[in-house]
């Protein structure tokens, strides 16, 4: 049975082992995952006593496990603790601590959990004793691009926060989870990654949180960085950072979450031929403060949707036009000034789901159309 497990912090990799029947399918799946981890890493695990002695001087890396395919086996989900035990040789790279935030498919992660995650990560980096060199968030791949961008916008610290997962479950042949996790540990302790911020690491590629996007339903190379390309790669011999993320002020978040208990409601609505204004009106009735249109081309919608959007703006709702094409820009200043107090602007190169995150955060600060436009130009 798959169930959430409450958060707690444990030390690894010298973690106590959990005994399960070798004849159960769950135990078999977990055993297979561990075996795959060994094969992928190409090394046998060091004895536990040596692990503890050798790890004392190594940097600490904190793993926050949330679930997703990386944890999935047939009929069960591995815990973060079990995931890190599948990484032979990790004890020569870092001291791992692990915390279970949830154990769910990534579609089940809530906005309240985002707020908690961001605060928790900043708290970890502010610990006076033994703060982690980096944090790894194991996460379902379906929405990891959203979580990575949210963290990119809200973390005060620039230290590495690596969102990773797997396209193949822990019990599938060729499971990619152990390699992704091991590469994330290697990146977290890399001296050049100290200010890399929130990134996605999948399939040996380090992608900026802002641009990372899932573009395939099942392949291990499902992720790209739209318009930006990877920041670097995790090769077998070394982690190589080929370029730096855009400069930012470390210590100050782009959006301060202090005092926030929830985020403004922002809906994404798809444009397609024949779409009427019903969904736009429903969003307004549901209390949306913002609407992001997954528009055709460079920001187009149907006449009926455009009319409903005019009414939404007249009611003070901010409207952002992004593109459903998956690449390219909708000019931020393409909105025009008329139509009501609600802003109308383009999403730039942000996909609809990323534009929604930026609009939610922007609306915590302002509803002014010019200020919103400025935020979209600079984030
Ligand atoms: N199970 C999906 C999710 O949690 C997919 C995945 O993790 O790859 O997002």
For the structure shown, list the relevant keywords.
379 residues, globular, single chain, alpha/beta, Rossmann fold, four-stranded parallel beta sheet, binds D-aspartic acid
Structural class: alpha/beta
Q: Say how many strands there are.
A: 17
The coarse overall form would be: globular
Which segments are poorly predicted (pLDDT under 50) over 5 or more consecutive residues? 1-8, 12-29, 31-53
Note down, in words, how this protein is organized.
With 379 residues, the chain is α/β, with parallel strands linked by helices. The chain folds into 2 domains: 2-241, Rossmann fold, CATH 3.40.50; 266-378, Rossmann fold. The protein has 10 helices and 17 strands. The protein has helices spanning 25-41, 48-55, 80-85, 111-126, 144-154, 177-188, 278-285, 303-314, 352-363, 369-378, and strands spanning 9-11, 60-67, 72-73, 76-77, 95-104, 134-138, 161-164, 198-202, 205-208, 212-214, 223-225, 232-234, 239-241, 266-270, 290-295, 318-323, 344-346. A 9-stranded mixed beta sheet has the order 1-5-2-6-7-8-9-12-13, with helices on both faces. Strands 14-15-16-17 form a 4-stranded parallel beta sheet, with helices on both faces. Strand 3 and strand 4 (76-77) form a beta hairpin. Helix 1 crosses helix 6, helix 5 runs parallel beside helix 9 and helix 7 (278-285) packs parallel to helix 8 (303-314). The chain is globular, with a radius of gyration of 22 Å. Mean pLDDT is 87; it is low at 1-8, 12-29 and 31-53. The structure holds D-aspartic acid. Residues 68-69, 105-106, 140-143, 165, 167 line the site of D-aspartic acid (DAS).
